[in-house]
Amino acid sequence: MVLKAFFPTCCASADSGLLVGRWVPEQSSAVVLAVVHFPFIPIQVKELLAQVQQASQVGVTVLGTWCHRRQEPEESLGHFLEGLGAIFSHKPWFQLCRERGSKSWSCKATHWQGPTSHAASGEDQVMLIFYDQRKVLLSQLHPPAVLPDRQAGDTTASAGGLAAVFDTVARSEALFQSDRFDEGPVRLSHWQSEGVEASILVELAKWAAGPVCLLLACLLSLVSAASACRVFKLWPLSFIWSKLSTCEQLRHRLEQLTLIFSTRKAKNPAQLMRKANMLVSVLLDVALGLMLLSWLHRKDLIGQLADALIPVADHVAKELQHLLQWLMGAPAGLKMNRALDQVLGRFFLYHIHLWISYIHLMSPFIERILWHVGLSACLGLTVALSILSDIIALLTFHIYCFYVYGARLYCLKIHGLSSLWRLFRGKKWNVLRQRVDSCSYDLDQLFIGTLLFTILVFLLPTTALYYLVFTLLRLLVVTVQGLIHLLVDLINSLPLYSLGLRLCRPYRLAAGVKFRVLEHETGRPLRLLMQVSIACILPCSSKGLREPG
Amino acid sequence: MEDEQSFSDIYGGRLALQRRCYSPSCLEFCLSCPRITLRSLTAVTCTVWLAAYGLFTLCENSMILSAAIFITLLGLLGYLHFVKIDHETLLIIDSLGIQMTSSYASGKESTTFIEMGEVKDVVINEAIYMQKVIYYLCILLKDPVEPHGISQVVPLFQGGRRQDHLCIQQKVSLGDGGILASSGRQK
């Protein structure tokens, strides 16, 4: 297999030194993690590597030498570099060399046979692959953390190919703690050398997150314990709770908040992403709710709404009354059965009258109620929308009642018709066998059955028309409520954190890698640039990295 | 070293296959698809605008004409960005993997990289298209669960879907210098 050397782009301009990293024999690849600069004491380098190995369970060793000079290395330096190979013995020993200010690289890999037999050492062809350490570290393309029943040593035996490279870089955090500007015994160059990647806000948030999470988790457990108590499980209350969409939404939010503020850490990046998405959606929800609240209070819309509510309810009732008068006449030119028409029409008109009286009774309290309901918008826009949907359901309760009456009547009529139609044909429904059987009826049974059948058939258009009209009205109300619920679900489930990551830090949503062949000269090793390719939700051209050197 | 040959697809359009050898362990094949011709562009634009003008004479609403212009522009942009492939590249790197890049006419590039450890074999598949049999090159991927099974078949050079690949893949399979075969021995 061709020998591969993964070299970080940040070390391409570093001074000469030793290459430190990990050798993956199954892939014949050497992953260079950092460069140790001269001067150094070999014992201290070995100590540091042993420490890092213990802390991160990654087999970090010295892989070879790195030479970054103005001209070709002199003979003495050449011997010095080869002497280093004797101190830190590693098979194969890599010697990378680059002339300062030029793009020509050279790379040799020798299998060290012994201090005397230079000629017998074999040289292999090496392929140089550049990678951006920071992006590889943050892209999380490596397999998840060590399973508890496996030993640390053989976890990467199953990780194939490039996942092993990513895994090595990601687990060597201990190596990146100190860099060449620190006062320690060993000076390293790696991706943190150009400036340590950290943010005060993030660190403070991490410190504060512990106690805050604990406090909020306690509060939320109190609230969920209170809501799960036996009082709320009694029949009328539990029925009402299950019907109101506000309670559903509140329960959903409570579950989400419990998950976010639970003191258990997320097990893998997918869970972390889910938690982050939930947190961002809750925050957005509350922000939108507060904006709505401030808008309502600024324009004193609540008072206007309360004033407008009664006339609107009156108007709706009047329209319904006109509709019923129309149905009681000759709707669409159809001729209804007068008596049934009058009965049904008067029944529904009386209902509307009751409803209007009820609304007028409630009118002094409307403004108070609306004010308190508007206050609930600080819990979130979704809660306010759910309450709106519930108010619509309550205000159109009479339409729901009409629909139920119409549907029941129609259902009864259809059942009666089908049963009498079977009787008309001399058949019967066998409940035991769940099928239609023939049956011999008496003459008087047949007579009465046929009579009833005729009556029901002639009354069918009236009932059907009432049923149709009220079903359409109910459908209208259900459509409006459905749209509100759709909006609520959209706010609940939109993954805003992932979308934000996609725009700002696309490498966190990495979907794979891609390679680019860099300028090639004959006689020099082949150089490739490995870039993390981003999951393409939006169409865009792929962004490239700066070519080293 | 570079090597260029031209072929034609089953509709007579011109294809060009370019082979570059960066090193004994890295090879690149680049297939350029036939370009969009001025004739077809003019034909489509004229059809859309004539239809819009016909509608305009019926409805006397000038919004139709503006809408037709928008539709033409957006349709052309969408076609160039999502549909029209300019050239496709196959990069074979010994013991690393195979990378396929499609470049669209608007400059967008979409890349897929398959690691060598996942590749089971490269084969030429036959398919029946209308009245003839066409051949296309595809990669068989290993199944992680079953050692002798195949999990996926990935066709190569899918940009111009009506390309007859027989001559192309003879060049590809002979020209990869045994990289795939030597990597196969390592599996």
UniProtKB/TrEMBL annotation, chain A:
Transmembrane regions: 276-296, 343-361, 373-396, 445-469, 475-499
Superkingdom of origin: Eukaryota
GO molecular function: glycosyltransferase activity
InterPro entries (UniProt xref): PigQ/GPI1
Record keywords: Glycosyltransferase, Membrane, Transferase, Transmembrane, Transmembrane helix
Coiled-coil positions: none
Name the record gives this protein: Phosphatidylinositol N-acetylglucosaminyltransferase subunit Q isoform X3
Lineage of source species: Eukaryota, Metazoa, Chordata, Craniata, Vertebrata
UniProtKB/TrEMBL annotation, chain B:
Keywords attached to this entry: Glycosyltransferase, Membrane, Transferase, Transmembrane, Transmembrane helix
GO molecular function, one term: glycosyltransferase activity
TM segment ranges: 36-56, 62-82
Pathway: Glycolipid biosynthesis; glycosylphosphatidylinositol-anchor biosynthesis
GO CC terms: glycosylphosphatidylinositol-N-acetylglucosaminyltransferase (GPI-GnT) complex
Any single biological process term in GO: GPI anchor biosynthetic process
Phosphatidylinositol N-acetylglucosaminyltransferase subunit H conserved domain span: 89-158
PANTHER family in the cross-refs: PHOSPHATIDYLINOSITOL N-ACETYLGLUCOSAMINYLTRANSFERASE SUBUNIT H (PTHR15231:SF1)
Family recorded in the similarity comment: Belongs to the PIGH family.
Protein name, per record: Phosphatidylinositol N-acetylglucosaminyltransferase subunit H isoform X4
UniProt source species: Balaenoptera acutorostrata
Gene of this entry: PIGH
